Amino acid sequence: MMATRPPPKGGIGLNRLDRMKGHLEKLNQDPKFKRRAASVLIVFYLVTAYFGIRYLRDTKHKATGEPSPYKSLDDVEDVVGIPSARDTTEIYDSLAQDYDKKIRMEEFLSTIWLKRRRVMKNVSGDVLEVACGTGRNIPYFRPDNVSSITFLDPSLPMLQVAKEKFEDKYPKYEKVQFVKGRAEDLIDITSNSGQKFDTIYESFGLCSHEDPEKALKNFTQLLRPGGKIVLLEHGRSDKESLNERLDKRAAARFKEWGCRWNLDIDQIVQNSGLEIIDQKRYHFGTTYFYILKQKTN
């Protein structure tokens, strides 16, 4: 009886390798796979480049003895929790010229631009954008849906950047105005004109207001019957372990960006007495999207 010859060493591994190659070749012919693979590679490259550049810049400052442009926790009060409310206009005045450059990568990687697009899809009629900042929603503005638009921000340098951006993109759009002012003072600002709005929207503004609850109540008073409020905000997570991290970094974040990113946005909305038409949460519950309206009696 002849002995059975054992399979060549590594034969099983080679068969598996051949099958894997065949599978990859099939995937490579699928256009959807190519697009997804390209997207993953692009995101990986951008993340690597972003942190690589920051590391090299920080290393340069350590080597030359120049002051680092990045804030450390040592420069911030050792406070854990929600920072005390105050007027943040001066912070945004100083950030205005470099704000877009500083925030662009963070918003791209976290897909905030998609959320901004969703906000603008729900904007129509005579509209007011509160805390417009440098106009980061302007790329998604739909002029055919909007009868008029008012941009409000307490920081004049921020407002000027937004104005230049809007006029550059929509030079023929005439029914637009830019108003310097705080959300808490909206009723006084509009008292002479008696202006009302079909849509009031805001993105990442409640966290920077000195009195976010008053701001939201002011929005309500300026709505026309049937009008709506659209909010895109960030705040406390629905995961306590993440809230601990937000609380620890809150003082540093507030000093650098002027926002209290650990506010309980859901509680602020509940306290407003507004009716929630639609709501979503993203990024482990830290990003909030709302469509609100006045409650009917």
From TrEMBL:
The chain crosses the membrane at residues 37-56. InterPro entries: Methyltransf_Superfamily, SAM-dependent_MTases_sf. Gene3D superfamilies: Vaccinia Virus protein VP39. It holds the Pfam family Methyltransf_23. GO terms for molecular function: methyltransferase activity. Keywords: Membrane, Transmembrane, Transmembrane helix. This is Methyltransferase domain-containing protein. The lineage of its organism: Eukaryota, Fungi, Dikarya, Ascomycota, Saccharomycotina.
